[in-house]
From TrEMBL:
Organism name: Pseudomonas syringae pv. avii
A single BP term in Gene Ontology: cysteine biosynthetic process from serine
Location of the protein in the cell: Cytoplasm
GO-annotated cellular components: cytoplasm
Main localization (coarse): cytoplasm
EC number: 2.3.1.30
Protein name, per record: serine O-acetyltransferase
Coiled-coil boundaries: none
Keyword line: Acyltransferase, Amino-acid biosynthesis, Cytoplasm, Repeat, Transferase
InterPro entries: Hexapep, LbH_SAT, Ser_AcTrfase_N_sf, Ser_O-AcTrfase, Serine_acetyltransferase, Trimer_LpxA-like_sf
Catalytic reaction(s) noted: L-serine + acetyl-CoA = O-acetyl-L-serine + CoA
Length: 261
């Protein structure tokens, strides 16, 4: 029991920079209190003491503002940040190292008995106000954006935003290419705001294509320079013109304004 308690406290330090010490986590984190109360209510539920389990669960809801049905299955190092307004249904299953923020609902879309709530894989992060509704799986490592409404299965490692939820970052789809784009953006001194994971718009795609083209040109230039050096030419010793950050300041400001809106 004490080992699990220590593990819970450490999980807070790993995911909340505001946590200062163990005593503060023990006494001032309602998300932790809700999880500990759920372990008691879940144990009672498993022993068949349904009414008592619901009573303990209801006490936890009154104390923390977080409602976790005693029938829900919760993994290790589960972290609820802030937590007010969270609802987790009876047949929900939560893996290890999952993070939920305030206002999240893991709910159902039917009154039929049986599995009717979602399953969250290991390492899933669900943003504030998001609703995950239905008996499907959100794959390990996936992220659900704030206020998204998700009603379909999410692949492992994907990012989902919007109403209805749509996948904007697919797992293992262009990860290598994305890394190359970021490397090229850093090389030329450009803040590639348009290719960030949370801006899946035409501007993002256009800038991504430009970075791909620049990378191809850069590769050809390196090959040509190598060939010229072998021939004894000093041509490639010249430095390329520097791209100044202030030249892109207006573009960055416009992008920030668009993103905020």
């Amino acid at each position: 029991m004490f080992e699990r308690l220590r593990e819970d406290i450490q999980s807070v330090f790993h995911r909340d920079p505001a946590a200062r010490n163990a005593f503060e986590v023990l006494t001032c984190y309602p998300g932790m209190h809700a999880i500990w109360i759920h372990r008691l209510s879940g144990a009672l539920w498993g022993m068949g003491w349904k009414w008592l389990a619901r009573l303990v669960s209801n006490f936890g809801r009154w104390l923390t503002g977080i409602e976790i049905h005693p029938g829900a299955k919760v993994g290790r190092r589960f972290f609820i940040d802030h937590g007010m307004g969270i609802v987790i249904g009876e047949t929900a299953e939560i893996g290890d190292d999952v993070t939920l923020y305030q206002g999240v609902t893991l709910g159902g879309t039917t009154w039929n008995k049986g599995k009717r709530h979602p399953t969250l894989g290991d390492g899933v992060v669900v943003g504030a106000g998001a609703k995950v509704l239905g008996p499907f799986t959100v794959g390990a490592g996936a992220k659900v954006g704030s206020n998204a409404v998700v009603t379909k299965a999410v692949p492992p490692g994907a990012t989902v935003v919007g109403i209805p939820g749509r996948i904007i970052v697919k797992p293992q789809d262009g990860d290598e290419q994305e890394a190359k784009r970021k490397a090229m953006a850093e090389k030329i001194g450009f803040d590639a705001y348009g290719v960030s994971e949370d801006m899946p718009d035409p501007v993002a795609r256009a800038i991504g294509q430009l970075l791909d083209h620049l990378q191809a040109v850069d590769g050809k230039l390196e090959g040509m320079c190598g060939a010229l050096k072998e021939l004894g030419s000093p041509y490639c010793a010249k430095d390329l013109p520097e791209l100044r950050e202030e030249d892109f300041a207006e573009i960055k400001d416009e992008a920030a304004t668009t993103k905020a809106g």
